[in-house]
Every structure is written in structure tokens, then in C-alpha cells.
């Protein structure tokens, strides 16, 4: 019997600018949750660990590079299991140091926002949960 995973690992990064703002990425309009703002990242491929996957995704989406050792685990969010579907689990990391200037290579736009602005942005449900947890974590 083939073992089919019951969950899909996804990784995302919270990038602070050192001035109280954080980078958000606007999803492509033709994708699920198109036009909503999210922390940049993507699916973990079967041959990757989460850190490798996130570094690859940041290069593809934003054109930046970073050392996986610089990723700080922050929090996670998960979907409730649905009938016959794999639940998504997003692992959020903080990345404070990277090389290159972030650009929107795969999405509609990027922007730098304060925590209050991020909490007010239209986001997918899991990014809502990640933002709430991240900024509670960062504040205290």
C-alpha cells in the first residue's frame, strides 16, 4: 500500500527591514487566493528540507539569496483537515540577513508594512494566523 502524506509542508519567511516594517508578497491573480498578501515562500519539495526549500523559494520569488543557517523558526499555522484533502501546514521563519534587493519576480507586488498594516491587509487565512502569532511573539 502506497503511503500518501496527509499534510502538505509549506515554508514562509518574515523579512524585517530593521525599521519596524516587514516584507509582504502579493499573490499572482491567477493563483488560489490571488491578489491577497502573504509572507513569501512556497511548498517543500519531496527532496528538500524546509530550510533548503525556503531559500530556493526566496530566490525564485524575490531574487534574494541567504544562508539557511540564518533562518530563525518563528511559528506555524495549519488548516483544519478537510474530507479527502491534505492539510497545509506553513512553517514561518524570520530571516534578518540576505543578499540582494527583493523584487516581485513571481507575484503581483511586494511591499514593506508595519505590523499594524500587515494585520489589516487582505490575506489568506493561514497568513492571518501567522501574522497574529508573529507579532505577538515579536512584541513580547
Structure, described:
The structure is a single chain. This protein is an alpha+beta fold and 140 residues long. It has one domain: Nucleoside Triphosphate Pyrophosphohydrolase (Alpha-Beta Complex). Helices cover 24% and strands 29% of the residues. It contains three helices and seven strands; from the N terminus they run E-E-E-E-H-E-E-E-H-H. The protein has helices at residues 50-62, 115-120, 125-139, and strands at 7-14, 22-26, 37-38, 41-43, 71-78, 87-95, 109-113. The protein has a four-stranded mixed beta sheet with strand order 4-1-6-5, with helices on both faces. The chain is globular, with a radius of gyration of 15 Å. The chain starts with 6 loop residues before the first strand and ends with a helix. The model has no long low-confidence stretch (mean pLDDT 91).
Structure, briefly:
The protein is α+β, with helices and mostly antiparallel strands and 140 residues long. It has three helices and seven strands. Helices cover 24% and strands 29% of the residues.
